[in-house]
Each structure stands twice: as structure tokens, then as C-alpha cells.
């Protein structure tokens, strides 16, 4: 059978009209915040392109373009925040969001063609592993824009990414502990190859060096951003001959693992051990005591990623291929001043 013509997309219409994909979505969904002249032009082009989402009958939903958010690991508190941000932005813009988990990509070309055939207008990738050149090439060949969130390594200009100020966050977390009088501060972080972990580690080391506080042997440990890693490394560092009085963990999930390791040794938090996390997910607020952490604006990052993906799908240029959103220290109950006995 002859191949059916590729249907017009929001990006096609937006490019023809010289407007954003979001504006076309607003017209399709009957939003009032569109200038009359722009609405008339967009509606005319929708008819010209025979867009299937034009003028749905009462009770029917407008057909919208979809963007896929793809993870390569199981969902956790971090990924939930990202998803919430993307879905919220999608609802505001009238864009469908599909969430998937793909742990292994053996055939990049088939993977990319499948995404394009499913009608995806763009891909948002949240990955624990570096995307390969073959995968990036496959997406480019099917003209599927890619936006990465907190990528393992900062990509070149051919890929667009959204992250946060990880160095500043690591610096703020360590400076907070130093301001409380702690000098024996350990860092339990993520994979050594991850750019976000390297930046947090550099922030930690910069704060320690500026204060003249030595980083003792065994005080820096690394693994996956997971609870079990925090539990295991927390137990190891607390078992050192000269254990730390404070620990900065590379994510909230790891920080909760450290908390449990401390409790298993009979340590009180924060009286005997201060702990700082990173992310400010829901589990930070639910922890006992509530976790002092560095707020990474995960929901905002998801929203920025979606809006950037739509701009790329519409053929627009972006101002920067890597955007960093500001982090912020949130002080709660898991940190306190060093006691007199710890100074002794």
C-alpha cells in the first residue's frame, strides 16, 4: 500500500504562521488570549494544512501534539517532580505528554523511528547514562528535537539541556554546615562521571578549602543516586576511626539512607550528626526530622524543558543550548550546631 502523507503538525502550522506552537495550541483550544488577527491567520492555515485537530465537535477533545518524557531508570521522588513540571506545562499549553521508561536502547534507529511514527513532536530525556552519538544521530535523522534534563555530561551545541546551579548548591550546603561549627564534613555523592555530581563535589571542596577545613581520607564516597547507596556509604563513613559530625548527601534519597545508617549506630539527628540533602523533593519534608536540603527547581526544570522542546519543534532558535536554574538552601531540622563534646 502507498504510504499515507505525513499529517500536518502544530509545528508545521506554527512555522507557516510565524508564531509559537503554544499560540497555535491556544487557538485550537479556544483560548481567548490570542489577538483576533493572529487567530484568523492560524485558523486559515489550519484549514489549509488540513490539520485534523481543527474545530472538534462538542464533547470531543482537540487533537494535540505530544511530547515524550523518557527515563532510563525506575521512577523515584526526583523523577516524580520532573514529571509534574512537564505535565503541568503541557496542560497549560494544550500539549499531550507521554511518560515512558526505556532502560536499554539496542537499536537507536528503530527507537527514533518509533518515536516519530508515534507522532511525538519532541523528546525530553532524563537519563542516568550518557546518550551515545548513534542515538543523537538517529534522533536528528528523523528530525525529532531533543531536550535533556540534568544530563550526565554537558552535551555539545547539537543538543539542548536544562539543569541547575549545582556548584552553587554544593557550596551553599557545605557553607551552612561550616557556619554551624562543623569541620569534619563528609560528602556522599552520585556517579563520579556525572556532571551534576562533579559540580556539587567541587562546591563542597571549594567551601572546605576556603574555610581551611581538611577533607579527611574516606570522607568522599560515590555511587548511584539511591537510598541504598546512602545507607551503605553512610555506614562506612560513620565507621571511620574519626567519623564526621556532618554529612552532605548528593540527593534527598541518599540523605535518608544516611539517616538510617546513623540511627542504626544509635546516633541522634541533628544532635550527634547533621545531614544536608539535595533536590528538596517531597521526601525531604516527610523525613524525621525534616531534611535540610538544597532546593533544585525540578518542576520548573520540567516546564522549561517542555517549552524549549516546543520551540525547537517549531523550528525556532533557542538563546542557549544549556540553561541552569538557581538552587536555594532550605534549612529544616536535620542540621544543628556542633556540640561542646564534638569540639573537644
TrEMBL record:
Q: Which PROSITE patterns match?
A: HTH_LACI_2
Gene Ontology MF, one: DNA-binding transcription factor activity
**Which InterPro entries is this protein grouped with?**
HTH_LacI, LacI/GalR-like_sensor, Lambda_DNA-bd_dom_sf, Peripla_BP_I
Q: Which keywords are on file for this protein?
A: DNA-binding, Transcription, Transcription regulation
Please indicate which superkingdom the organism of origin belongs to: Bacteria
The HTH lacI-type domain is annotated at 8-52
Entries under PANTHER family matching the protein: LACI-RELATED TRANSCRIPTIONAL REPRESSOR (PTHR30146), LACTOSE OPERON REPRESSOR (PTHR30146:SF153)
Under what name is this protein listed? LacI family transcriptional regulator
Amino acid at each position: 500500500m502507498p504510504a499515507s502523507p505525513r499529517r500536518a503538525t502544530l509545528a508545521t502550522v506554527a512555522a507557516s504562521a510565524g508564531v509559537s506552537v503554544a499560540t497555535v495550541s491556544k487557538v485550537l483550544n479556544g483560548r481567548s488570549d490570542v489577538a483576533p488577527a493572529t487567530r484568523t491567520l492560524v485558523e486559515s492555515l489550519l484549514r489549509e494544512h488540513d490539520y485534523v485537530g481543527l474545530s472538534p465537535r462538542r464533547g470531543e477533545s482537540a487533537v494535540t501534539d505530544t511530547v515524550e518524557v523518557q527515563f532510563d531508570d525506575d521512577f523515584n521522588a526526583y523523577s516524580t517532580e520532573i514529571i509534574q513540571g512537564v505535565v503541568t506545562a503541557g496542560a497549560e499549553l494544550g500539549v499531550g505528554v507521554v511518560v515512558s521508561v526505556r532502560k536499554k536502547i539496542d537499536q537507536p534507529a528503530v527507537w527514533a523511528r518509533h518515536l516519530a511514527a508515534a507522532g511525538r513532536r519532541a523528546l525530553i530525556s532524563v537519563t542516568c547514562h550518557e546518550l551515545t552519538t548513534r542515538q543523537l544521530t538517529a534522533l536528528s535523522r528523523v528530525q525529532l528535537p531533543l531536550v535533556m534534563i540534568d544530563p550526565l555530561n554537558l552535551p555539545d551545541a547539537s543538543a539542548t539541556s536544562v539543569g541547575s546551579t549545582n556548584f552553587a548548591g554544593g557550596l551553599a550546603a557545605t557553607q551552612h554546615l561550616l557556619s554551624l561549627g562543623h569541620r569534619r564534613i563528609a560528602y556522599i555523592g552520585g556517579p563520579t562521571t556525572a556532571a551534576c555530581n562533579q559540580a556539587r563535589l567541587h562546591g563542597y571542596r571549594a567551601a572546605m578549602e576556603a574555610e581551611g577545613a581538611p577533607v579527611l581520607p574516606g570522607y568522599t564516597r560515590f555511587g548511584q543516586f539511591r537510598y541504598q547507596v546512602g545507607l551503605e556509604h553512610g555506614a562506612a563513613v560513620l565507621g571511620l576511626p574519626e567519623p564526621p559530625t556532618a554529612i552532605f548527601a548528593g540527593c534527598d534519597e541518599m540523605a535518608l539512607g544516611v539517616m538510617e545508617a546513623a540511627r542504626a549506630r544509635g546516633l541522634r539527628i541533628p544532635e550527634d550528626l547533621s545531614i544536608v540533602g539535595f533536590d528538596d523533593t517531597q521526601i525531604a519534608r516527610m523525613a524525621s526530622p525534616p531534611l535540610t536540603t538544597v532546593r533544585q527547581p525540578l518542576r520548573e526544570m520540567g516546564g522549561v524543558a517542555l517549552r524549549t522542546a516546543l520551540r525547537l519543534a517549531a523550528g525556532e532558535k533557542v538563546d542557549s543550548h544549556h540553561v541552569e536554574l538557581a538552587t536555594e538552601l532550605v534549612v529544616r531540622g536535620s542540621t544543628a550546631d556542633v556540640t561542646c563534646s564534638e569540639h573537644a
